[in-house]
Design brief:
With 271 residues, the chain is an alpha+beta fold. It has 11 helices and 9 strands. Helix content is 46%, strand content 18%. A hairpin with a 2-residue loop joins strand 3 and strand 4. The relative contact order is 0.12.
Length: 271
């Protein structure tokens, strides 16, 4: 987050996957490097997986979030990412005071979509972002100038999100959907998702049932059963292993839910 009298901010973040920031937008540009972590990212109108080493730049006002899973962390169970934020005003000042940067900055500002940089670009950007960790603000400013020349080269990037205006209902449903995708393998409860969305339990249950036509637990179980079906087709895990892997904690309950949704037990489905 940019503070007064700051033209940019640099954040090196190391935290538990559960402490991830929910869906948000900002008035500044946001350059993110995933140092350690993986999961699902939601940027504007696009939802897709992300992995360690990924570098993405997001223009102002595009809603986005990074949902980290617990499978890719450091030895302390933490994910690590670096975020550099800067405003259009900062870019304009650089362009005005450093004519050598004008072409690079104008090329960058033309872009209105979130972009993922290719492997070679990501390596170069990551090297600069990681070196900034031990730099003071003046040294970081010189590093940003180096970055701007790389960030403007968007020909080999890939669009990973465009601005799409959503109402509050759709934003909430997106938050719930991505929460389920990222956490279905864990033992999650209704309280967990209610806390994540920021609603009280009664209001959430009414909202979800009216929006989706089923309870949250039914929705979660259906998603887990579809995951189980994919694993059953691979045949390299036992049914009990699959049960626990997709988030169920009781094998008889897993079998009952599976039969309810698929019309047969897991062993029959596998045959």
């Amino acid at each position: 987050m940019l503070l007064e009298k700051q033209s940019f901010s640099y954040d090196y973040v190391r935290l538990s996957p559960k402490e991830q920031i929910g869906l948000h937008r900002q008035s500044s540009w946001e350059l993110t490097l995933i140092v350690i972590g993986s999961g699902i990212k939601l940027i504007g109108d696009t939802t897709e997986p992300f992995q360690s080493g990924e570098v993405v730049i997001i223009p102002p006002e595009i809603p986005h979030c990074w949902y980290f899973n617990g499978d890719n962390t450091d030895i302390d169970g933490k994910i690590v990412n670096i975020t550099l934020s800067f405003t259009n005003e900062f870019l304009n000042h650089c362009s005005l005071n450093f004519p050598e940067l004008y072409r690079y900055i104008e090329d960058l500002k033309k872009n209105q979509e979130a972009l993922k940089y290719n492997d070679s670009q990501s390596i170069a950007i990551a090297s600069i972002l990681e070196s900034m960790y031990k730099q003071n603000e003046v040294e970081r400013l010189s590093s940003i100038i180096r970055l701007l020349a790389i960030l403007s080269l968007v020909d080999n990037t890939r669009i990973v999100g465009k601005y799409k205006k959503k109402d509050k209902k759709q934003e909430r449903l997106d938050m719930i959907r991505i929460f389920v995708i990222c956490n279905a393998y864990r033992d999650i409860s209704l309280d967990d998702v209610v806390r994540h969305v920021g609603m009280n339990k009664s209001a959430f249950c009414t909202f979800f049932k009216q929006s989706i036509g089923k309870t949250f637990i039914t929705y979660l179980n259906e998603y887990r059963i579809e995951l189980a079906c994919q694993l059953l087709k691979q045949k390299n895990m036992s049914i009990s292993e699959i049960c626990y892997h997709v988030g169920f904690t009781d094998i008889p309950y897993f079998n009952r839910v599976f039969k309810k949704h698929k019309g047969c037990c897991p062993s029959q489905y596998r045959c």
